[in-house]
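Form P-L/3: holo structure prediction, ligand pyridoxal-5'-phosphate.
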Amino acid sequence: MSRILHRTIGIGLPTAVAGEGIYITDREGRSYIDGSGGAAVSCLGHNHREVLEAMKAQMGRISYAHTSFFTTDVAERLAEQLVELAPKGLDYVYLVSGGSEAVEAALKMARQYFVEIGQPQRRHIIARRQSYHGNTIGALATGGNAWRRAQFKPILPETHHVSPCYAYRDMQVGETPEAYAERLAVELEAKIVELGVDKVMAFVAEPVVGATLGAVGPVADYFKRVRQVCDKYGILLILDEVMCGMGRTGTIFALQQEGIVPELVTIAKGLGGGFQPIGAVLLSEKIYRAFADGSGLFQHGHTYIGHPIAAAAASKVVEILQRPETMSNVAKMGERLQAGLDAALGQSPYVGDIRGRGLFRGVELVVDKETKQPFDPSRKLHSRIKRESMQRGLMCYPMGGTIDGINGDHVLLAPPYIIQPEQIDLIVERLAAAINAAV
Ligand code: PLP
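OUTPUT (holo model):
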């Protein structure tokens, strides 16, 4: 009997005993292709020798030094690497231990920024429906996933939500992508006006929506229009790249495909590649300056921020991501994955949309392709797909439609960037078989 309170109780999880490359092996000797990188975490696969060596070397130097007493070379190096890779304008890094922590820190930075510059009346956060920004109270309040929020709603701080950019379901017939982006910008502006033009502190969005919608990217111009609206009202833009960042969509930061620079960016998951728990917030000079010239501190912190071994792992991961062969494989294998999914599932009457960027792909399931009607949530189609794919030796990341009934069940794929063509084909084959068996 397990003494762990697992996410789902009583389902009898296999015990993972080894990981190598894109495979995880369980105690019974079954092996699984890690087609989702866990939850878009294991970007370099498992047991990567160079990352393990970097961690070991750091353990031999120093494993922990509290950040109120010391900085470390390895944390400083990681921050420099990230700033060098980030679009110009993101000049400083705050290291944390995971995605929710990164989002909490970014929200508090936004709030403290406005206190520092003498606009303490700015307190509202606007985010989007069908989004996920983490499970801690502030991050959960920010996210717009109705199912995840439902039972906690009475204890969540107030957050306001507008529509996500979800062309498959929301762009109207005859509407151009530009007109759709404009409609969403108008909606955002109306929400700002409703709340008070000088009362909003931040707009939060995932550049490519991961867990809630399944690899849904924006239409062209959407983020440019969002940036303009935020600028018009002096609102900070926070982009959450916890899932879609660190090379997942084909560029190190997903926002690099949108031609804008936010004031704050959150990253995690792929940053540590699963070798260590680590996340970060990248922040603009404007925010750093307000703190430095104001109170002289960021009034926030956790015990393990800037952990040297986590920083060592992340620093090596980032170094490997910078190698041209890493990102070119993401592009090539991403295209192969999309083409394979189109060929294997495009004709299925139950597959409404196959989408994504790089090695971040989503398959949305529908009862009827014409009406795009989602499956009844009581069928728990996503759970059945997960079971069927695990039986076939494939880890994928299926999620149910949200209870606001807008999106359907979907499957997210996010394999490691080291994946090879024949392994992509195996993922497609196993996923198609699992979906066909489950529907
Ligand atoms: N933000 C996004 C976009 C995520 O996808 C997630 C996790 O899936 C989080 C934040 C929370 O990250 P963590 O689970 O590391 O706390």
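COMMENT: The first strand starts at residue 16 and ends at 20.
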